Amino acid sequence: MSVLEHEWFILVQANSAHDIEQLCIESGISSYNTVKIVPLTDYQDVLNRINNQNQ
């Protein structure tokens, strides 16, 4: 949580952004908050992709 900005960061694993959106709607989170969904990639996965390209 960023106290000064009144902002929460929650990391979740899901099959799609739509699944996260549905969770936020069904739980009521999005009714009183702004929700920003940002896809992330695991750092190790990125390194593996880079290494595989260089082989």
Task: Give structural notes.
It is built from 3 helices and no strands. It has about 55 residues and is an all-alpha fold. The protein has one domain (about 1-55). The chain is elongated, with a radius of gyration of 16 Å.
For the structure shown, list the relevant keywords.
mainly alpha; 55 residues; 47% helix; single chain; 3 helices
Query: What is the number of helices?
Result: 3
Helix percent reads: 40-55%
Number of domains: 1
Give the low-pLDDT segments.
none
Average pLDDT, rounded to a whole number, is 90
Task: Describe the oligomeric state of these chains in a short phrase.
Answer: single chain
Terminal-residue CA separation: 41 Å
What is the molecular shape? elongated
Write the layout of secondary structure elements.
Layout: H1 17-27, H2 29-32, H3 43-53
What is shown here, in short?
47% of the residues lie in helices and 0% in strands. With 55 residues, the protein is mostly helical. The protein is elongated and about 50 Å long.
